[in-house]
């Protein structure tokens, strides 16, 4: 096992949260594999996936934690909020209860992540227009009130709004990257959810990332 | 066994052992050797392959803490090199890196867990003295520095070996060095443990799933594989776990949760203890299902089942990390070693399992794996049912909370209702008492009103009550000609009682009118509340104009009421009412024309008097009001004049009795405008309340 060259310069850590069965795992699968997983077993604890994307010419590796929606694993999943740079909060547009729970998910997220964490709201399963139970306007208003980004998406259907899956992940990354550029997100904080990799192979500058943390934290 | 044998659910205990037969547990990641034999084996291999002997090199470096200084230097060099290599966009933070002390220190700063451990060390082992602490941290620092310096140069296996060497070195040091002389052997073991824990927590982000390895790929592979195997149930595994029993399910969940904790821990021994806890739970599950002792044979399938259902995050990374950096001695023996080895077996089984190992036809297996056939496993549905139950409980709890809150609200409502009842009673009582004190006297007076009207034209002079105020110098000026509206007194009492309010104002207007018209000079305009009076008069009499003029005067009176001092009260005493003294005479608009001033006034005064005096001490006095008026309310006077004009009252220009003050004191118009017309006969003064209530604030009533 030799040290291979890093082909990315950042790692962004994401979490996907939301009620059971809203399609979190499917969204992740769609994003990483570009496939719809029809019979996805319920997630136990957490699963993870990765994909390398490009933002402003920078290769960024997304390390995405897909959490279980089940309450009984909440204790486990909560430990993954820490240090997430992006949080995708998912509800199912065909089940209002999943929408109603958003505020508690949001509270958790706000409490357990750092203030610079980008939160993106996804209304999933928008291919099932006929069974819609939550209007776009309503959710959009909720997102606006809480300062979240928002799209409706479908893990099943690409094209049409299905592209929004891609968009949600990419927009989040863009926003995070923007925060880094602005200096709003402190790269070196232990829990920032962002790691920086030098482009030079075999180098690991994590410690330097951490070094700077205490000093240049102006925000 | 690992590579050679077909994965099987039944393993022999000997299969868990090192294939060298040294008596320690072997491990799939060590190619079936125990760690010692594996390392020996690797060393031999390496030496065979290349004479370069990298291993020797690393060993030489590790040889002792004495090389600490040298390492430090190396490390600083490295950092400089590193800084240069920073990409451009990191400049801002990297600029600050210069002048930073040691890499190690910095790393610790950014690691809150390490800080916690530091505190824990001091609290737990501080008693052994400063020198122990110093030596401990010196060794930790030497170790971590070494690791960091080798991080990029060496493959992870070599780093693992360095770590093991340092563990051994520190072990030796603890047992031989003078510094640790007084320390008991138990504490020595603990220190050893802490050494491992502290260094590994500090180095976790570098050593766990390092990007230089393909650990993450392996994680993804097995995660996907386990997901694909989600259809496997206890029956397939020939395992006695009954998936439908609630208790069993809960126990299995406990085991699963224990296993899930694996990824959240940082130190190898903490991860290991998660595994141990999970395995103990598995044993409990089996005990529950079988109702008896558990054989080793049954354990592995159950563990496999739990691993399959848990699909723990980064399973391979975790196992590899523990294998590499946990102190070997822990893994090679004891409960932890045994369970960990079993876990490795389970994982290896999962990675390699085939239709055969599950005792099912190949075709069926394939169709399951490809997702063609999906079976709803009892486990899966139980999971959903569980969540349903959970939500049910959640809602029940919510309802309970609501119930409690409703009860509270109801209590509050009840209380409020009682309070309101009480208040109502109180008010009623008060009203009753007030009514008692100042009962119907008013009405009789009002009745006379029509009479006064008639009378007025006849002999206006008579109507004008003369206000003689002993207290006031101004009053002296007031000649009988001046028509004062005595009625002022009625004003304020009554916010609570509508009845009270009614009484006060009416009287005034009637009288002044005739007087003012005839007697230009002396009537003090400010004293009389004009607006109110006028209206009442209007309704009564055809010739409104004449009365209007008077009305101005009336306004003044209102004012005075507000400003009135307690002194009024004295004057208002019932005796005075009954037999009004000459000084006290007030013009009573309602009184019959022919009656002398005194007589007329008396009825009015008394009514207001009794009410005012006891309750509010605000009885309006003729005398009193003059003064406060002048001082405090010049504005109103002006307004009043305006009003008068509007009403086209001819009498506006009456000379005020109090000349010096007149300039300031213009009038009362504000109130006048607010005062709605009051029909004389009804005696309804509710409208007056408004004007009166507004007065006190503006006039700076002493009260
Ligand atoms: N029609 C439609 N179905 C979807 C979509 N996304 C997910 N599903 C279905 O919804 C079900 C649940 O999806 P999952 O991805 O397992 O849900 P989850 O949020 O991961 O659930 P947990 O892991 O239990 O928290 C699956 O049967 C999916 O096939 C979608 O966009 N459209
Ligand atoms: Mg899922």
UniProtKB/TrEMBL annotation, chain A:
One of its GO terms (biological process) is protein transport. Pfam families: Ras. It is a lipid-anchor. Residues 197-219 have a biased composition (Polar residues). It is an enzyme of class 3 (hydrolase). Its cofactor is Mg(2+). It catalyses: GTP + H2O = GDP + phosphate + H(+). It is found in: Cytoplasmic vesicle; Early endosome membrane; Golgi apparatus, trans-Golgi network membrane; Recycling endosome. CDD domains: Rab14. Its EC number is 3.6.5.2. One of its GO terms (molecular function) is G protein activity. PANTHER family: DRAB11-RELATED (PTHR47979). Belongs to the small GTPase superfamily. Rab family. This is Ras-related protein Rab-14.
UniProtKB/TrEMBL annotation, chain B:
Residues 216-359 form the VPS9 domain. Residues 44-79 are annotated as: Disordered. The keyword Cell membrane does not apply. InterPro entries: DUF5601 (IPR041545), VPS9 (IPR003123), Vps9-like (IPR045046), VPS9_dom_sf (IPR037191), Znf_A20 (IPR002653). GO terms for biological process: vesicle-mediated transport. One of its GO terms (molecular function) is small GTPase binding. Pfam families: DUF5601, VPS9, zf-A20. Residues 67-79 have a biased composition (Basic and acidic residues). Residues 12-46 form the A20-type domain. One of its GO terms (cellular component) is cytosol. Keywords: Metal-binding, Zinc, Zinc-finger. PANTHER family: RAB GDP/GTP EXCHANGE FACTOR, RABAPTIN-5-ASSOCIATED EXCHANGE FACTOR FOR RAB5. This is Rab5 GDP/GTP exchange factor. It comes from Aromia moschata.
